[in-house]
Amino acid sequence: MLQKKILKKLVAATIMTGVLTSCAHLTPSEKKPTPTELNVKKVVLDNGLTILIAPNPKLPIVSYYTLFDVGGRYEVKGTTGATHFLEHMMFKGAQKYGPGQFDTLIERNGGVTNAYTTNDATVYYENIPSSFVEKMVDLESDRIQHLLLEPVSFDSERQVIFEERKMRYENSPDGFIYLMMMKKVFEGTPYGQSVIGDVEDLKDLSRDQVMDFFKTYYTPDNAIIAIAGDVDPDKLLPILKEKYGSIPRSKILTDLKAKRDDPANYVLKAHFNSEYSFYSTNPIPKFTMAFKGEKAGTRRAFVLDVLAYMLGNGGSSFLSQKYVRNANPLLSDISMSSYNLRHAGVFYLSGELMENVNIDKVKTQLKGDIKNFCKDALDARTLQKTKNQILSTAYHQMKTNSGMASTILMNEKVYGNYNYGVKEMEIYNSVTESEVKKECNDILVNSDSIFISTWDKFPKNIAASVTQNGEVK
Questions:
Q1: Alpha-carbon distance 297 to 331, whole Å?
Q2: Tell me, what CATH number does 152's domain have?
Q3: Which of 62, 123, 219, 468 would be a feasible disulfide site paired with 229, CB 3.0-4.6 Å?
Q4: Are residues 296 and 172 in the same domain?
Q5: Same-domain pairing of 16 and 142
Q6: Contact 209, 79 (CB under 8 A)
Q7: Among the listed residues 303, 287, 291, 294, the one whose alpha carbon sits nearest the alpha carbon of residue 351
């Protein structure tokens, strides 16, 4: 659960998670052949629950992932943080296995458990010995059907979440500037809300409201289970059907989600060509320059992933060499990211200044330099290096039970096809230099950005918004 882990963004393409050593010495003809089909058994129960099982008998261990298709974007003003609050409470006891038993039983048998909530989904996962799988099915099916939401633990967990919010946002300059970017870029849309929740909403959020989220969204037709490791699908499926098969599907979910997924809800209303300065605890200024990105699943989203890798991935990247690793560095750190959500996206450049460097100087230089990135940084060799990095990351991810379960789970959710990871690799490998240059010019040269900076020298509780022509808003 989130008090045990660092809150992370769940990108649509799970195979992009992590950065591994470059394999730039490989040419396309030397790369391993891409598999055409993953060894996964898929079954959809009569109640709509999707089950994916990827057997891997090499070691007596198993990863067990459960995804519910509900995240922060399903909340409205007054209930922000409800999905994340529910994630916490899922560990606090159910009818058969009461308070404290869920974690205790798993840990006592040599396993670990955790979860995370994002804008688009909530995911629970366990890494356990294969001998514990049947008990794990019983534990998970119990809390999905009979969650207690015991009042005493509900109130105590509220305080835990307040502390988490402080740790992630108020006391974390990186978390705070990310939150401000999301709020400004996605202002007026379901993505412009804090996943952890706004302070006032968290104060007033009731047990009944959280229980309503549970009953509405924790239904079998809104869930995917992915199990990878030392299991026999033919023996495990009857157990899963016995424990999950009698849970009724939702009668209202289809219409409810259709309204929430209406594309009109996600039309950006942001004030691009604007600048914002916020007080935060960082003694050296940080900044983010954000552009309108792309939703998950389109070819353009894949091209933007490649572009972000080419410009800002690692110490040898163009941006790092230009601003960090030189004789007179302006920045101590710089990165570029493409965050593809289900209905929208953001493409952003982030960095931290060197001590005694002026933030206005950096901002002016970046805005002057950015028009040259596309012609100076993008060439065939860098493109091939990037493809090799992405493919290497994908292969290494799917070598582990956890990586396999996570990959097939997310691909089933986003694309309706657990095997789409194979297609993703084909798409990344097909991206051309001309495509990358075109998108680079479209997004960095020919579109406006939102520039956000944080510093402990900025006034507290005041955000200055200034357009590029100098007009204070």
A1: 33
A2: 3.30.830.10
A3: 62
A4: no
A5: yes
A6: yes
A7: 287
**Which of 262, 278, 299 is the last residue before a domain boundary?**
262
pTM for the full predicted model = 0.89
Question: In this structure, are residues 332 and 324 in contact, taking their beta carbons and an 8 Å threshold?
Answer: yes
pLDDT in tens, the chain (473 residues): 433 332 333 333 333 332 222 233 333 434 444 456 899 999 999 999 999 999 999 999 999 999 999 999 999 999 999 999 999 999 999 999 999 999 999 999 999 999 999 999 999 999 999 999 999 999 999 999 999 999 999 999 999 999 999 999 999 999 999 999 999 999 999 999 999 999 999 999 999 999 999 999 999 999 999 999 999 999 999 999 999 999 999 999 999 999 999 999 999 999 999 999 999 999 999 999 999 999 999 999 999 999 999 999 888 899 999 999 999 999 999 999 999 999 999 999 999 999 999 999 999 999 999 989 999 999 999 999 999 999 998 888 889 999 999 999 999 999 999 999 888 989 999 999 999 999 999 999 999 999 999 999 999 865 555 554 434 34
Output DSSP code: residue 15.
G
Contact 117, 84 (CB under 8 A): yes
Amino acid code (one letter) for 331: L
Parent domain of 416: 266-467
- The verdict on 286 and 198 lying in the same domain is no
Give the tokens for residue 316.
């040898």
Cα distances (Å, whole numbers) of residue 428 to 272, 353, 409, 417: 29, 33, 20, 17
My answer on whether 82 and 45 are in the same domain is yes
Domain termination residue (choose one: 247, 262, 277): 262
Question: Same domain for 254 and 322?
Answer: no
Distances (CA, A) of 260 to 32, 74, 84, 189: 42, 7, 18, 11
Phi-psi region of 18 (alpha: psi -120 to 50; beta: other; left: phi over 0): left
> Count of residues for the chain?
473
300 inside domain: yes
The answer to whether residues 105 and 162 belong to one domain is: yes
Number of domain units in the chain: 2
- Does 383 fall in a domain? yes
Residues 299 and 199 in one domain: no
